[in-house]
Amino acid sequence: MPSADSDVERMKELEILVGRQATRSVIEGCPYLLDWLPAPRIPVPDTPGERARAFQLLLREIVDQAQDAFNANPQDPVARSTLAVGALFGLVTWGPKETPDQYAPSARSLESRQALAGDWMDPPVAGNTVRRRKYKTRLLAEFRHTLYDHAAPAPSTSSAQASSASRDRAVGESADQPQRDAAAVNGTHLRMPRTARTRAVLAAVIAVAVGVAAVVAWQFRPPADSDDDPVSVDDVARVEQAGSFVLPQRLDLGPGRLDEINHDKFWQGGAGHKATFSSWFAEHKAVWAEDSAINVTLSGASDKTVRITGIDLEKHDCRSPAGGGTLFYAPVGGSGEDENIGLLFDMDAPQPTAQDEDGQDYFARRTITLKPGEAETLSLFVRTRRQNCAYSYRLRVVVPGDSKPVWVTIQQDFRLTALATGADPTHPYSPYRALYVGGAASPAQGAFVRADPVVYNNDPATLMEP
Known about the structure:
- This protein has helices at 2-20, 24-28, 31-34, 48-72, 77-89, 110-120, 127-131, 133-151, 157-165, 255-265, 271-283; strands spanning 170-173, 216-220, 231-240, 244-247, 249-251, 287-289, 291-300, 306-319, 326-329, 343-346, 368-370, 375-383, 388-398, 406-417, 434-437, 449-451.
- By secondary structure, the chain is α+β, with helices and mostly antiparallel strands.
- The chain folds into 2 domains: 2-153, no CATH class; 173-462, no CATH class.
- Helix 1 (2-20) packs across helix 8 (133-151) and helix 5 packs across helix 8.
- The longest helix is centred in the first third of the chain and has 25 residues, at 48-72.
- The protein is globular, with a radius of gyration of 23 Å.
């Protein structure tokens, strides 16, 4: 899998730029980054030194654009994380409240550059946090996708042929829908990355996959609220991190097409990329698997302070998880120390209730209050290991002076499926006709790589193309 290997090497070289700063001499020793320059940027004469100069100029252009975006919107998360990486590279020597200096790699120590990078995050974090490998990997993986747009390599003849030849080929569906009584793979809680200006009200621990950089949110138009509703549903956004999903048909993807899907799925900023992936997702009738999450922004629409005393997950149209198609398997792994709080729903329970981080009924011990006009974002996580169900949410709201609670419905319907199981538990993915492995199981910093569903069994040694 050459593309995966190259991606891993580029990440290693980006880490070198962090450790030694992005000087031309250091960049000159990074052949995979230099090979990433597209044809229009290749200098004449084409020497390693001149390529290093061109690549450093590219980095400066990216920092320039991020600074412009930050000036326009200081809460822009992509701009801030890009400037944080620029600080790690030694190209950004100013903080969020300072005026940009002239570009020149600073003589700052790695510790001081990490502290400056932490200042650029929203909310700011300590330099020791940036120093953690998991945190640094997340930043660099996000930055890699920014580089993808600016420095996508001009394809070689062979790769161009492979890319043009790689089309989505649906070659049939299976009518089999085997029963699933237990997960074929280990389930894991999720941890949401911290979101600016969001006080999350919930607890399901979401672990950030090492190397999986970005969170992609598909925005939904909130329903028109009744004039009598005491709570307004202002925004609903699906949030997927790593994230497994299933297609009903077999899909054979060449390296070029798979690279495009990886880029669009894990891109953090830009509506075009999000729209590209979500359109592809809907076109192929894909369904998220095992774990899913949405962020819901609510606001008080009454002239009184109201209390949300319960949230129900209502499931319907349940069926057995089906194999026979394509599985994009992307488990979330690792752990984090700065988790937000969220509400976790177990779809396999007879009546799913909102649980806290200890697995207890959240609303048995507390409520959520909304003053008039006050906004609140809730993160709602769902998991299943046995079912394939559509579901929606209802909020139980108490208004002072009213004799009965009011039920407010979040109108959007969602669907989540467990993984199908086969007769051989030692090969848990054999029910599928095509398999792509990503997330914490990927050797390519979270990106999907192709695997053989009848061979792969979660052991990296079995991760080979069919």
